[in-house]
Automatic annotation (TrEMBL):
Residues 68-325 form the Periplasmic binding protein domain. The chain crosses the membrane at residues 36-55. It is found in: Cell envelope. The keyword Transmembrane helix applies. The keyword DNA damage does not apply. Belongs to the bacterial solute-binding protein 2 family. It comes from Paenibacillus planticolens. Keywords: Membrane, Signal, Transmembrane, Transmembrane helix. This is Substrate-binding domain-containing protein. Pfam families: Peripla_BP_4.
Length: 359
């Protein structure tokens, strides 16, 4: 009921109060009638404003929960990396009291499926969408659609070429690739040898940046020859077959950098099968339970560990800030760490490999 209507109803119930005794009849003057009515109406107005102000204060102190949609590259429970991102998202949502809806295709290569996820999320009209784009170009129209709808867009892990986002939160992939290159090229006593990188056939911007950083790093080592970046169709089995083929072609290869988890696991299987753990160094990315086991066994010599939990948490925190009118950083870079068998048991690295997540 509007304030005007409430006032109309209440003013119709105002009683007149005379100043004379009940036992002495007295004719009321115009002033004795109008003044009490005026005071009564004024009191109703004041009460009305107090009620409205109280309701507004209640609305401010108990706002509607923000609705945030999260579209990952994959929501597959077998993907340790993206499940850890999801865990960070959930932890932040609980702490900041926002509602979240996490979706994503079964496979990271299913770009069409992710575009459908974005369209479905937009139909629910969320306040913000957090997107980890599977493709730099093909997700650009979807990102533009999000911005045109008035929904805040926060990108994580990978950019899109339209730059429509309020903020991009991602690993510093160039620096991560550089660290992988330094690890493989260093400590070889000036021997001549070859190294290569292995990535998916739908190479992401993140992987391209890793290759660039890797190449810059090994350029500082004259005895190291870069044999190139080789692709596979995205499965561990395909990476395994590709590495077997490449080792036959390039017998002087002494180092392989797997640019993602599948590349790392496939390369490790091929090396372990040939019992070449002491001849070829593998440095990988990410920290799945399988990679950690291979690190302990010495098959993988190092892994570049990102911070997916942090990324997920920061994405929600940044979205809430942007929706609150707070200016957010357009790009937030998250550092990656080199973890080896020798340093994996430090407290800091154990927390990176096995972050404690509230279920």
């Amino acid at each position: 009921m509007s304030l005007a209507l409430r006032l109309k109803v209440k003013s119709g119930k105002v009683r007149r109060f005379g100043l004379c005794s009940p036992n002495v009849p007295r004719k009321e003057s115009p002033m004795t009638v109008k003044r009490p009515v005026f005071l009564a109406v004024l009191s109703v107005i004041v009460i009305g404003f107090v009620v409205v102000a109280s309701m507004e204060m209640l609305r401010i102190t108990n706002p509607r929960k923000l609705e945030i949609a999260v579209v990952l590259k994959t929501n597959n429970v077998r993907s340790d990396y993206w499940q850890m991102v999801s865990a960070g998202v959930k932890a932040a949502a609980k702490e900041l009291a926002v509602n979240i809806d996490i979706t994503g295709p079964v496979s990271e290569t299913d770009t069409a499926g992710q575009i459908r996820n974005v369209d479905e999320a937009l139909l629910k009209k969320p306040d913000a969408i957090i997107l980890a784009a599977t493709d730099y170009e093909r997700l650009a129209p979807a990102a533009t659609k999000i911005k045109e709808s008035g929904t805040k867009l926060i990108l994580i892990d990978s950019p899109v070429y339209t730059h429509t986002e309020a903020s991009l939160i991602a690993t510093d992939n160039f620096e991560a690739g550089r660290k992988a290159g330094v690890f493989l090229a260093g400590g070889q006593n000036s021997q001549l040898f070859g190294v290569m990188t292995l990535g998916g056939n739908q190479q992401s911007i993140a992987e391209k940046e890793r290759v660039s950083g890797f190449k810059e790093a090994i350029a500082d080592f004259p005895g190291v020859e870069y044999a190139g970046n080789y692709e596979f169709d995205g499965t561990e089995d395909a990476a395994y077959e590709q590495v077997k083929h490449l080792l036959a072609m390039y017998p002087n290869i002494k180092g392989i950098a797997g640019l993602n988890e599948k590349a790392t696991l496939g390369a490790a299987r091929a090396i372990k099968e040939k019992k070449w753990e002491d001849h070829i160094k593998i440095v990988g990315f990410d920290s799945s339970i399988y990679e950690i086991k291979l690190l302990e066994e010495g098959v993988i010599k190092a892994t570049i560990v990102q911070k997916p939990f942090n990324m997920g948490y920061l994405s929600v925190e940044t979205a809430v800030q942007a929706l609150s009118g707070i200016k957010v950083d357009p790009k937030v870079s998250i550092d990656a760490h080199v973890i080896t068998k020798e340093n994996m048991y430090t407290q800091e690295n154990q927390e990176l490999l096995f972050p404690l997540v509230e279920k």
